[in-house]
UniProtKB/TrEMBL annotation:
SUPFAM superfamilies: Periplasmic binding protein-like II. Its main location: other. InterPro entries: Peptide/Ni-bd (IPR030678), SBP_5 (IPR039424), SBP_5_dom (IPR000914). It is found in: Cell envelope. It comes from the Bacteria. Residues 160-580 form the Solute-binding protein family domain. PANTHER family: PERIPLASMIC BINDING COMPONENT OF ABC TRANSPORTER, PERIPLASMIC OLIGOPEPTIDE-BINDING PROTEIN-RELATED. This is ABC transporter substrate-binding protein.
Length: 711
C-alpha cells in the first residue's frame, strides 16, 4: 500500500509534490538553465564545445568583448582599458603610416593596457601563510588527507591582475601539452611563438611541476611585459583580425599561481584541476561542478564592476532593452545549470517555469511556433498566454553544398562544368529544405557572408543573380526551365551526357547516423532528379567522410562553417586557393582555386572596413557566384524562448558572456510556478479510497470475530 502511494505521488508530472527546486532557491535571485553536453574542458587554452564556452565566458575575461547591443558586431574593452590600435613598422624598426603597403610592413605591435584594480576570484592558489609564502604550493600526501574537492582547502586569497598573467597564458598556448587548437594559427602570426613551441616540445614527457617551472622561465620574443599593466604583442607582418582573437577565452589571463597549484601531485587524481575549477576575474565563479548532474555559477565577490551599456541600435529605445542603462552588473547572484540529455524533460521543465529560457527542439516546434501568412514565425496562443517571448537571430554560420573542384565531371574551370554547377544551384530548392527539415529556421544564403558580417549586402544588391531574380521586392528562385537550358548548354540535355549517351550520375558524400537522415537524403535525390541527374548516396560515418574530403575523392557534399570572429575574411578564406583541403590541408573543402579571387582576397584581408574593402568583397562574391564552387545553402536561424520574468534577454551570436546583463523578477516567477503547477491531489484521494476498501473488510472481519467470541 505504501509503495502504491509513493508511486502515485512521484507520477504527478506537474505536481507541486514533485517540485525539483526548493522554494528558498525559487525566491532567490537565481537563474535556472540547462546544458545538454557534459562539459569537459574549462581551461581557456583548450578547445571547447558551446556548453563549455557558456561557462568559460562568465569566468574568464580576455582584453576585449563584443558590445551587447550594437550591430554590426563591435569590439569594446573588457579587462583592457581600451581597444588597442596596431602600429606598423618596417624591418629597421621605423614607424609606418596606417595605410602603408602590406609588403613594407615587417611587424605590427599591439599595446594592451590593463584596467587597474581588477582582482582574481578567491582561490586557494593565492592563499598565503603568515610569513608570506604560498600556503598550498608545496602540498605533501599528508596535506591532502581528507581533501576531495577544492572547497576542502580552508584558506583562499586573491591578487590584482597584471600584464604578466596575459603573457603567461599566451605561453601556455604554445606549450604542446596544452593541446591548444589555435597554436598553429598563432605560430604564423605571433613573433617567436613557433620557436617557443619547439623549445617546449622536449618537455612533454616531463612531470607537471617541471613543465610549469619551464614555462614560467621561458621567454617569448613577440610578447613583452612593459610594466605591471602594459603588454606588447608583436605580430609578423599585418594581421588586422588579431583584434578579434583578443575577445576569445584563449587570450584570457592565467595566473602562474594557478598553474603551480594544479601541477602538484595528488590533485589530478581528485579531479582538482583547472578544467574542473577555473580561476578568473569575471563576474561569476564556478562554485559547484558536478557535470553529471548540475553546475553552479555564483557572483564573484572580487568582481571589479561593469555597467549595463547605454548605447544600442535605434529600435532598442522602444524595446525596453536599454531600461537598465548605466546600472551596475551583474544583476543575477547565482546561475544553476542542470544536465538534461533529453529534449522532452528540458522542454517540460521550461513550460512549468523551472527553467527561465529554452531553445526549441523539432518535436516541440509546433507547440511553440506557428508561421503566419508572410512566412514569419509567431508564438502560439498557449505560449503568449504564459507571457513567453520569442527571440530570433540569424547565426554567423553557413551550411553549404560543396562541389569538389578537382573532380573531372563537376569540378574545374571549364564552361561546361560551370554551367552544370549553376543548373544544380537553381534546381536544389533550399527554401523547401529549410521549411521541411529546419522548421523554417534558416535564411537562404546568397553568398558566403551571413547578415551582421561586414560585406553582406541586403535587398536586390545582395541576391545571387545566377540563381535568383528580384521580383515584387523579394528574391525569387529562377525556374527549372532555365536550369534545363543550362544543362543543355553544358552538354547534358535531360541529364544525358551528349558525348557518351549515358545518364549523368553524381556521388553525394553523406554522414547518416539515424532514421531522420533517410528523408533528407531522399529529398536530395529528388532535387537532382529534376534535371535528370542520378544522385548516388555514399553514406558513411563522420571519420570516413572527413577522409574523403581530405583526399578529394568525393564529388558533392554538404558542410558548414561557424564564424570564429565577425570578419568577412573568416568566410571568404573558405574559397581561398592556398587553403585547399587536398593540397594544403586547409579549410577550403571544395578545393576551389581562382587566381583573380586569390589576388583580391590577399588585398582584402588586410584592409580596414570601409568603402574600398566593400568594393573588393563585392568583386570576390561576384567571382564566386559566377564559378559556383558552392551551392550557397542557408544561414541557420536561432530561435529561443524566455519567460516574462527574465529581462534583458537579447540575441548576440558572437558573445557568450551575456549572463551578466540579464535580470530576473523572482517574485513573478514564483507566482507563475504556483499557478502553473497546482498540487494534483487525486492520487492521494485515490490512495485513501483504496486504503479504506482494503481496511474496511478487515475491520469488519475483526469486529465479527470479536462478537462471535463474546457470544
Amino acid at each position: 500500500m505504501l509503495g502504491f502511494l509513493a508511486l502515485a505521488l512521484s507520477g504527478c508530472g506537474e505536481s507541486a509534490w514533485n517540485d525539483p527546486y526548493p522554494a528558498a532557491d525559487a525566491e532567490a535571485n537565481v537563474y535556472y538553465s540547462s546544458f545538454a553536453e557534459r562539459p569537459k574542458h574549462l581551461d581557456p587554452a583548450r578547445s571547447y564545445s558551446s556548453d563549455e564556452y557558456a561557462f568559460l565566458a562568465q569566468i574568464y575575461e580576455p582584453p576585449l568583448q563584443y558590445h551587447f547591443l550594437l550591430r554590426p558586431y563591435r569590439l569594446v574593452p573588457l579587462s583592457a582599458a581600451e581597444v588597442p590600435e596596431p602600429r606598423y613598422f618596417d624591418a629597421a624598426g621605423n614607424l609606418l603610416p596606417e595605410d602603408a603597403p602590406v609588403a613594407a610592413i615587417d611587424h605590427s605591435d599591439y599595446l594592451i593596457r590593463i584596467q587597474p584594480g581588477i582582482q582574481f576570484q578567491p582561490h586557494p592558489a593565492f592563499a598565503r601563510a603568515d610569513d608570506g609564502s604560498y600556503r598550498y604550493h608545496s602540498l605533501s600526501p599528508r596535506d591532502l588527507r581528507g581533501v576531495n574537492r577544492l572547497a576542502d582547502f580552508k584558506e583562499t586569497g586573491t591578487r590584482e591582475l597584471t600584464a604578466d598573467d596575459f603573457a603567461h597564458q599566451i605561453k601556455r598556448l604554445a606549450a604542446p601539452w596544452s593541446h591548444s587548437p589555435i597554436a598553429g594559427l598563432m605560430r604564423e602570426h605571433i613573433r617567436g611563438f613557433g620557436e617557443l613551441a619547439d623549445r617546449l616540445a622536449g618537455l612533454e614527457s616531463a612531470d607537471a611541476p617541471a613543465r610549469v617551472a619551464a614555462l614560467r622561465q621561458a621567454t617569448l620574443s613577440g610578447v613583452e611585459v612593459l610594466d605591471s599593466r602594459t603588454l606588447r604583442i608583436r605580430l609578423e607582418g599585418k594581421y588586422p583580425q588579431f583584434q578579434y582573437w583578443l575577445a576569445m577565452p584563449f587570450f584570457a589571463p592565467m595566473p602562474w599561481e594557478a598553474d603551480v597549484f594544479y601541477a602538484q601531485p595528488g590533485l589530478a587524481e581528485r579531479n582538482i584541476t583547472l578544467d574542473w575549477y577555473p580561476v578568473g576575474t569575471g563576474p561569476y565563479m564556478l562554485s559547484e561542478n558536478d557535470p553529471n548532474r548540475r553546475m553552479v555559477l555564483e557572483r564573484n565577490p572580487n568582481f571589479h564592476g561593469e555597467t549595463y551599456p547605454s548605447e544600442g541600435m535605434p529600435e532598442d529605445r522602444d524595446s525596453g532593452i536599454l531600461n537598465d542603462a548605466g546600472r551596475p552588473i551583474p544583476f543575477i547572484d547565482r546561475a544553476i545549470y542542470s544536465l538534461e540529455k533529453e529534449d522532452i524533460p528540458r522542454w517540460t521543465k521550461f513550460l512549468q517555469g523551472y527553467y527561465d529560457a529554452s531553445g526549441i527542439s523539432s518535436d516541440a516546434f509546433d507547440q511553440a511556433i506557428r508561421i503566419d501568412a508572410s512566412g514569419e514565425p509567431m508564438l502560439t496562443d498557449v505560449m503568449r498566454e504564459r507571457g513567453i517571448s520569442l527571440l530570433t537571430s540569424v547565426e554567423p554560420s553557413i551550411f553549404y553544398m560543396g562541389f569538389n573542384m578537382l573532380d573531372p565531371v563537376i569540378g574545374g574551370d571549364s564552361e561546361r562544368a560551370r554551367l552544370l554547377r549553376r543548373a544544380i544551384s537553381i534546381a536544389v530548392d533550399f527554401e523547401e529544405f529549410i521549411a521541411i527539415f529546419t522548421n523554417g529556421r534558416g535564411l537562404v544564403a546568397q553568398s558566403p557572408l551571413p547578415p551582421g558580417i561586414f560585406g553582406h549586402r541586403e535587398g536586390e544588391a545582395g541576391i545571387n543573380p545566377f540563381v535568383y531574380e528580384w521580383c515584387n521586392g523579394r528574391p525569387e528562385r529562377r525556374g527549372l526551365n532555365e536550369a534545363r537550358v543550362l544543362m543543355e548548354q553544358a552538354g547534358y540535355p535531360n541529364g544525358v551526357d551528349r558525348e557518351t549517351g549515358r545518364a549523368l550520375s553524381l556521388n553525394y558524400e553523406a554522414v547518416a547516423t539515424g532514421p531522420d537522415d533517410r528523408a533528407r537524403l531522399n529529398w536530395m535525390r529528388k532535387q537532382f532528379a529534376k534535371l535528370g541527374i542520378e544522385l548516388v548516396i555514399r553514406s558513411t560515418d563522420y571519420n570516413r567522410f572527413q577522409e574523403k574530403i581530405r583526399n578529394g575523392t568525393g564529388q558533392v557534399f554538404m558542410w558548414g562553417w561557424n564564424a570564429d570572429y565577425p570578419d568577412p575574411e573568416n568566410f571568404l578564406f573558405l574559397l581561398y586557393g592556398p587553403n585547399g583541403k587536398v593540397e594544403h590541408q586547409g579549410e577550403n573543402a571544395s578545393n576551389y582555386a581562382n587566381p583573380e579571387f586569390d589576388r583580391l582576397f590577399d588585398a582584402m584581408k588586410y584592409m580596414e572596413d570601409g568603402p574600398e574593402r566593400q568594393a573588393l568583397i563585392d568583386q570576390l562574391v561576384e567571382i564566386a557566384r559566377r564559378d559556383a564552387p558552392w551551392l550557397w545553402g542557408f544561414h541557420p536561424k536561432s530561435f529561443s524562448l524566455h519567460h516574462r520574468w527574465l529581462l534583458n534577454a537579447h540575441p548576440n551570436q558572437m558573445a557568450n558572456n551575456t549572463l551578466k546583463y540579464r535580470r530576473l523578477d523572482p517574485e513573478q516567477r514564483q507566482a507563475a510556478r504556483r499557478d502553473w503547477n497546482p498540487p494534483i491531489l487525486w492520487p492521494l484521494w485515490a490512495a485513501g479510497g483504496v486504503l479504506v476498501l482494503l481496511v474496511l473488510p478487515a475491520w469488519w472481519m475483526v469486529r465479527r470475530r470479536e462478537r462471535s467470541t463474546a457470544l
